[in-house]
Amino acid sequence: MKQESLIAIKKELKALEREELIEICLKVAKYKKENKELIHYLVFESSDVDGYIDSVKKSLQAGFESLHPGIYLRSKEIRKMLRTLNRHIKFTGQPLAEVQLLIWFSQQFLRYAGLTSSQKQLALLLFRVLQRVKKNLLKLHEDLLFDYREEYENLLEQSSPKLKNFDLASLEL
Fold it and tell me: Which helix (H) or strand (E) holds 171?
């Protein structure tokens, strides 16, 4: 079965009645949890992105506070929280929200993860998150970049002892 392009789908959706559109949205929401979360964001949360960011932080904060002491399970929990965070970032679709959430995630990671030099996978995860922060910082307006530059540089300073084997010069703005 051939899938139609987004342009064709948009054209067909415009031709539908309001009730039919509601039914289609409800069907889409039933099939995947992520679709339901996206519709929830678009309907209820998209008008207040700052409030949505705060609610995402609160929901993930409990996960950081209750990290497993064992290295294996702790790393699995952190990766799961990052996947959840990435899903919420994708919903907002805004570089500023991504910067705010990733900086917060990195700060919580450094605070709660107890990263040591022997944990290369977790260190690599932090390094990649910092790369994403840098990439999105460069997309921001210069005023916003100035506001978040200091926070980012503090984050780099805190993480530099944990990331000794990585090229930290590539993370500098």
Answer: none
Q: Which of 122, 128, 98 is nearest to 110 (CA)?
A: 122
Provide long-range contacts, Cβ within 8 A and 24+ apart, for 18-25. none
Q: What is the pLDDT of residues 78-125, one digit of tens each?
A: 999 999 999 999 999 999 999 999 999 999 999 988 777 667 888 899
Candidates 70, 169, 66; CA nearest to 122 is: 70
Could you tell me the pTM of the whole model? 0.87
